[in-house]
Amino acid sequence: MAIYLTKESKVLVQGMTGAEGMKHTRRMLAAGTDVVGGVNPRKAGRSVDFDGRAVPVFGSVGEGIEHTGADVTVVFVPPAFARAAVVEAADAGIGLAVVITEGIPVHDAVALTSHARARGTRVIGPNCPGLITPGQSNAGIVPPDIAKPGRIGLVSKSGTLTYQLMHELRDVGFSTCVGIGGDPVVGTSHIDCLTAFQDDPDTELIVLIGEIGGDAEERAAAHIREHVTKPVVGYIAGFTAPEGKTMGHAGAIVSGSSGTARAKKEALEAAGVRVGSTPTETARHVLEALDVLGGAAPDDAARDGARA
Fold first, then answer.
1. Which top CATH class is 146-307?
2. Which pick of 40, 122, 150, 301 has the fewest CB atoms within 10 Å?
C-alpha cells in the first residue's frame, strides 16, 4: 500500500504549460503517473502532446475534476499566484494539493494552508519536491528512477536529502516518500506522515529527515514516543550551521539552543529513534533495523554498498 498517493490517483497540473510544468509533467507521465489534465485559463480547450500522449488543458480545477475525476493537483504556478491556485483547487474539492512553488510569502502560505484545511484538502508543501509512491505514482519533481517499491516510509523537510536517502536505500525500496518542505509554514507535518505510515500495513520502518530551525522534530519525537510502534530512524541536517544564520530553507534558522540539530537529535533519541550523523550512517541504521525485523533486508552486496 502507500500513503496519500497511489496508482489510482488522477493528477491535474496547475501550470502544466509553463517550462517547469511541461518538464516535470513529462517526467511524471514517464513514471506511470495518471496525469489527466493541466489547468490554464488562457489555454483552455487545447491539449499538449507528451511523447504521443495528448493531455487536455482545462480552464479551471473544477472543470478538470468534472471531466476527469481528478483527486490530486500539482502546483507549478509562480509565487504571486500560488495562493489563488490552491484556494481554487480546495474550493473545487480536490483531495490533495502538492505545492512545488518556492518563494511564497509566509502570509500567503498561512492563508492557503488554512483555507485548504478548512475545505478538507491536504497540502504537501509549499517549496517541496512532492511525493512518490515508487512503481505507482509520482506527484512533483522527485526523480522516479532512484528507488523501487518497498517497505520503508520516508518523510523529509529536505528535497536533496530525500533523493539521497532514496538512493542509499534503493535496494530495499519505499512505500511512499514525502517531501514536506522546509518553509516556516507547511500544510503537512512530520506528525501527519508518521501517523499515516503507522497506519499503513505495508510500511515496516519509517525514516524521518529534519533540519535546523523550529521545533517540528521535537514535536515529532513526542508523537513517536506516544503513538508510533514501528521503528523510526532519523537524520538531522545542520550540525555545523552557525547560530542566528538562515541556512537553505526559510525555516532553517537557529536562535540560542532552540532549533539546533543537537537538541533535535537528543529529543528523537530520547523517543527511541536511532539518529545518524550522516545520510550514509542513517542508511546503515535502517539496514540494521531491518535485519532485526527480519525478512526485509537486501542481499549482502547491497548491504555492503550502503555501508561503504
1. alpha beta
2. 301
